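step=encode ok
step=design start
structure_in=
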């Protein structure tokens, strides 16, 4: 096992002399094998090893037993020990997630925080057996090529030295050296999907071919090469299709099937989603017309007015309201806006250099200080300047082809149901800057650069 692991470390350049390594130490055979392997390199590479253990508080006394075991293991080997106790069951209930996902997120957040503190790398004890189970799990969900790439040996500052070693090789390694470890009883139940694969499916596949796990490694390596090429092509198309309203749906729709699947994988990655084949098919369909597809709870692909967006819908719409009292800045719905009052000469000078400035200004002298900064509401109306026409905000946004999922994010200044100004669109007839205006109120998003237009609805 040691030789195979060393080759993996060298192949992926996982460790360098003087590295600080944060090891996720559960106390099981895999993490203990990794622990002892790193100890064997400690002097040679001058490694600083820090062990992190998460007590998930899911198995009562057994969880406390695991904690005590790894604590003593670290004490006996002069390794710094970091502990996090987390009530995963309660947290998963609050977030409405599975305990598996919640526990994983808590572990990685703890590892990442510790790695940042010590400017180190995180080593996890994923094995070739874990990799095979992951591929099988992804296949059952109808994954694409990315799902067949398995667990990456290196991801950012996370390294997995045991990724090409099977679980049976690890157990043999521990037995030969007399290394003790503990067994998590939850791994022996069929309550979790991965356990069903480990206990029921993998043994059958190994009967068919004892080298099943090693062959999965070869498969994932081939798929990774193919996926990298598809990523390059897909990214090029995404760059062509990008607009501030979303991605041009027709450009995406016209791409090859394999490339389209990779495009959706790229767009959903930020939500930690591996899209299933059924979702990819449905998203392609709405790219050819319009509609919405729920990919995961609260995560939607929306095709509207020729543009595709991947969005997360919140349960709570924040109806924050901020009265305008002459302040120089407002913060609303986590958005910051700078407020400035310019005389007409200053305004005209700025306007020559910033052609979009007008959309962020209104006549200051028409303001009564009873107005409210907020987001749209049912019944809002807007009187178009120079046209003597009043329209509902709903109709105006529709005519301007503003994506539906963006409409609730646009700031307005309103007097009751009368909207006086709309972010990126401009002022109403009542408050528009006209000949004779003396002072101008400029409402500028805090991170806004007038040299780059961020809203292009008008």
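sequence_out=
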């Amino acid at each position: 096992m040691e030789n195979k692991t060393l080759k993996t470390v060298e192949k992926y350049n996982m460790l360098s002399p003087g590295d600080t390594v944060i090891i996720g130490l559960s106390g099981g055979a895999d993490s203990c094998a990794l622990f002892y392997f790193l100890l064997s390199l400690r002097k040679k590479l001058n490694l600083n090893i820090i062990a992190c253990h998460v007590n998930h508080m899911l198995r009562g006394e057994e969880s406390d037993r695991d904690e005590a075991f790894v604590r003593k293991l670290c004490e006996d080997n002069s390794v710094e020990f970091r502990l996090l106790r987390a009530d995963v069951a309660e947290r998963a209930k609050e977030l409405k997630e599975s305990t598996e996902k919640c526990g994983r997120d808590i572990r990685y957040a703890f590892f990442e925080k510790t790695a940042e503190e010590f400017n180190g790398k995180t080593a996890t004890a994923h094995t070739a057996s874990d990799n095979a189970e992951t591929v099988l799990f992804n296949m059952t969900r109808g994954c694409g090529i990315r799902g067949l790439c398995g667990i990456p040996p290196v991801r950012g500052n996370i390294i997995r030295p045991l990724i090409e070693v099977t679980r049976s090789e690890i157990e043999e390694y521990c037995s030969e050296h007399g290394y003790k470890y503990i067994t998590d009883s939850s791994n022996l139940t069929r309550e979790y999907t991965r356990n069903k694969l480990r206990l029921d499916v993998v043994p059958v596949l190994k009967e068919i071919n004892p080298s099943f796990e090693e062959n999965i490694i070869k498969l994932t390596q081939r798929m990774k090469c193919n996926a990298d090429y598809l990523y390059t092509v897909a990214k090029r198309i995404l760059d062509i299709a990008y607009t501030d309203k979303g991605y041009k749906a027709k450009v995406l729709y016209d791409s090859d099937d394999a490339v389209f699947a990779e495009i959706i994988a790229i767009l959903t990655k930020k939500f930690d989603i591996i899209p299933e084949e059924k979702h990819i098919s449905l998203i392609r369909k709405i790219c050819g017309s319009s509609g919405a597809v729920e990919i995961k709870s609260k995560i939607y692909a929306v095709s509207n007015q020729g543009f595709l967006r991947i969005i997360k819908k919140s349960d709570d719409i924040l109806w924050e309201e901020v009265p305008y009292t002459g302040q120089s800045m407002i913060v609303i719905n986590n958005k910051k806006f700078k407020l400035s009052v310019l005389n007409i000469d200053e305004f005209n000078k700025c306007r020559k250099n910033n052609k979009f400035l007008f959309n962020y200004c209104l006549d200051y002298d028409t303001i009564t200080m009873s107005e409210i900064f907020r987001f749209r509401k049912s019944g809002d109306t807007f009187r178009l300047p120079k046209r003597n026409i009043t329209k509902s905000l709903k109709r105006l946004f529709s005519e301007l082809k503003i994506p539906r999922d963006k409409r609730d994010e646009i700031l307005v200044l309103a007097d009751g149901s009368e909207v006086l100004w709309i972010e990126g669109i401009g002022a109403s007839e009542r408050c528009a800057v006209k000949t004779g205006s003396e002072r101008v109120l400029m409402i500028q998003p805090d991170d806004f650069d007038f040299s780059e237009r961020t809203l292009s609805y008008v």
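step=design ok
step=annotate ok -> The longest strand covers residues 335-343.
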